[in-house]
Specification:
The protein is mostly helical. The chain has one domain (65-272): MetI-like (MetI-like fold), CATH 1.10.3720.10. It has helices spanning 12-35, 39-43, 46-56, 67-102, 114-129, 132-143, 147-172, 176-183, 188-222, 231-239, 243-272.
């Protein structure tokens, strides 16, 4: 029998790719069937969309603006920034401490101290996996309604976010300078703070700026569950069908987030390209 006439077998990798494609299609169909996604509902309700747009634009078309309302929205926006900044600062500080303890072969090389590293990684993973909205609900129950609950929720969420990336950045840093310092008689802690942390500092700053951007967006949503900020004002306006005033708040949020992102991007570029 000629070898050219023999049936050709598919490469093993191609089998794997076909299997992945089939599983992806099946899982996608299963997800859409359970998500309630419906083109008929999307296409068949234009009157509701038109009613919303008519009542939302132009802003203050149905409800005349007052200085009292404007300053109330502005104060809530300022409170949102305060929550995000305070929560980010606390989260970065505690996240840095946990990242130091969780980093592999950084401070704890003895097998007797490895449980501290495992525990720190577990705390970071737990804080990261629980959504910030759930933390906000928990802290509203614990400390009551208001900005303090939102600040605590942002802090815990930032600890999980920054703790993971801080640890990865310190693990990826070249350890040769730290090892050279230890050979010269420096302690492990001195070597870490003199060589590892300065090398990872640009990554720390970039991650912290990302965390602040994330915190500003999160703080808007946290207000919906009573955790302070401008989200509470936004929810109240939607509950009373004041869509035109709600669009003013959405515009204020858009300007705030866009401005913070531009400043953050500029700062990151300066840090990375210095």
């Amino acid at each position: 029998m000629n070898m050219d006439d023999a049936p050709r077998r598919l490469p093993p990798k191609l089998h794997f790719y076909i299997l992945c494609l089939v599983l992806f299609v099946l899982f996608s169909g299963w997800s859409f069937s359970g998500s309630g996604f419906s083109f008929s509902k999307l296409i068949g309700s234009p009157e509701y969309l038109m009613d919303f747009l008519r009542r939302a634009f132009p802003p203050f078309s149905e409800h005349r603006i007052t200085w009292d309302a404007f300053f109330r929205y502005l104060a809530a926006l300022v409170e949102t920034i305060q929550m995000a900044f305070a929560g980010t600062i606390l989260g970065v500080i505690f996240g840095f401490v946990l990242a130091l303890l969780a980093s592999k072969d950084l401070l704890f090389t003895s097998p007797y101290l490895r449980p501290i590293q495992v525990l720190s990684k577990g705390i970071i993973a737990f804080f990261r996996t629980v959504p910030d909205l759930v933390w906000a609900i928990i802290f509203v129950v614990v400390v009551g309604l208001g900005a303090f609950a939102g600040t605590l929720a942002i802090m815990v969420d930032t600890i999980g976010f920054c703790g993971r990336f801080f640890a990865e950045e310190m693990e990826e840093v070249d350890k040769s300078p730290a090892e050279a310092l230890e050979c010269c008689g420096a302690t492990k802690v001195d070597a870490v703070f003199s060589a590892v942390i300065p090398a990872a500092m640009p990554g720390f700053i970039a991650t912290s700026l990302f965390a602040f951007e994330k915190a500003v967006r999160s703080s808007v949503v946290l207000g919906i569950v009573g955790a302070g900020g401008i989200g509470l004002q936004l929810q109240s306006l939607f509950n009373f069908f004041s869509y035109d005033r709600a669009m003013v708040i959405i515009g204020m949020i858009f300007i705030l987030v866009l401005g913070i992102e531009q400043i953050s991007n500029y700062a990151r570029q300066k840090i990375i390209n210095r």
